[in-house]
């Protein structure tokens, strides 16, 4: 399966506190049993203390390991978020460049079309000077008449 561990595999790996705590717990049990068999109270009390201390140390080890797992998960999630953010930024920049290029091409096309139509209109006006002059005069007269009526 490679270097990547699944959750089940990781549960069997113990850290130093878990191992020492388990050994301390076993040692305390042994002392408690020895004290009970020998009929001596002091080894029993010391054994019980070692058991409690061992359980606490093992629990601390498990808790520390879980906290490290949570930290690593958080770090991995944050790393993935940064990576995704960079990907989205790059994608947005690429789309922006594409839209810019498309708008630039379309603008050139519209400018060329307007230029072509303007030249065609100017050529038509040049070929029909009399008609063009009459239309301009009529438009000027109509505009002057409309403006003079408003007063």
Automatic annotation (TrEMBL):
SUPFAM superfamilies: Hypothetical protein YjbJ (SSF69047). The chain crosses the membrane at residues 130-148. It comes from the Bacteria. InterPro entries: TM_Gly-Cys-Arg_CS, YjbJ_sf. The keyword Transmembrane helix applies. Keywords: Membrane, Transmembrane, Transmembrane helix. This is CsbD family protein. It comes from Methylorubrum extorquens (strain ATCC 14718 / DSM 1338 / JCM 2805 / NCIMB 9133 / AM1). The lineage of its organism: Bacteria, Pseudomonadati, Pseudomonadota, Alphaproteobacteria, Hyphomicrobiales.
């Amino acid at each position: 399966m490679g270097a990547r561990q699944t959750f089940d595999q990781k549960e069997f790996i113990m850290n130093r506190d878990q191992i020492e705590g388990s050994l301390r717990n076993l040692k305390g049990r042994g002392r408690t049993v020895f004290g009970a068999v020998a009929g001596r109270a002091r080894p029993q009390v010391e054994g019980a203390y070692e058991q409690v201390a061992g359980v606490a140390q093992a629990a601390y080890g498990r808790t520390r390991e879980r906290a490290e797992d949570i930290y690593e998960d958080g770090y991995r999630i944050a790393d993935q978020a940064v990576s995704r953010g960079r990907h989205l930024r790059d994608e947005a920049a690429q789309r922006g460049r594409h839209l810019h290029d498309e708008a630039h091409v379309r603008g050139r096309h519209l400018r060329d079309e307007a230029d072509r139509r303007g030249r065609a209109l100017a050529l038509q006006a040049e070929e029909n000077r009399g008609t063009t002059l009459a239309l301009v005069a009529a438009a000027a007269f109509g505009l002057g008449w409309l403006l003079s009526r408003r007063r």
